[in-house]
């Protein structure tokens, strides 16, 4: 199972970033970054915010990963949807249906 250290390591790889470069970018020592990656320490809220901003991901993603983030997004979407009146709910359904069709088309073009 992927943990926060794995996600940081993957984000570093995606951004061609070394531990040294990451430590410089967020103003922390390489040892602290190494401890995060190796699971010896968990980033505090300030470090999470810096990592999130630098890698342009949510702190939820850093902490929980994709699966839980998807669940959080779905829960938030349902909460918002329920607060809308019927007319606006219909607009959301129409827009979501259109987006789904666009995505299916894109996926078929990519061969997925």
Strand and helix layout:
Elements: H1 4-14, H2 19-26, H3 30-37, H4 45-55, H5 59-64, H6 66-83, H7 86-110
Helix pairs in contact: 2-3
Give structural notes:
The radius of gyration is 19 Å and the shape is elongated. The mean pLDDT is 90. By secondary structure, the protein is mainly α. The protein starts with a helix and ends with a helix. Helix content is 78%, strand content 0%. The protein has helices at residues 4-14, 19-26, 30-37, 45-55, 59-64, 66-83, 86-110. Helix 2 (19-26) packs across helix 3.
Morphology call: elongated
What is the chains' assembly state? single chain
- Find the count of extended strands (DSSP E, 2+ residues): 0
Give the low-confidence spans. none
Question: What labels would you give this structure?
Answer:
112 residues, mainly alpha, 7 helices, elongated
Compact summary:
The chain is mostly helical and 112 residues long.
């Amino acid at each position: 199972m992927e943990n926060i250290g794995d996600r940081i390591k993957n984000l570093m790889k995606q951004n061609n970033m070394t531990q040294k470069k990451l430590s410089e970018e967020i103003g922390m020592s390489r040892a602290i970054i190494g401890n995060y990656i190796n699971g010896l320490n968990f980033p505090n809220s300030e470090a999470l915010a810096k990592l999130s901003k630098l890698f342009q991901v949510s702190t939820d993603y850093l902490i929980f990963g994709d699966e839980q983030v998807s669940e959080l997004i779905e829960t938030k979407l349902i909460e918002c949807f329920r607060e809308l009146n019927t007319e606006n709910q219909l607009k959301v359904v129409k827009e979501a249906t259109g987006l789904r069709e666009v995505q299916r088309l894109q996926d078929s073009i990519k061969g997925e």
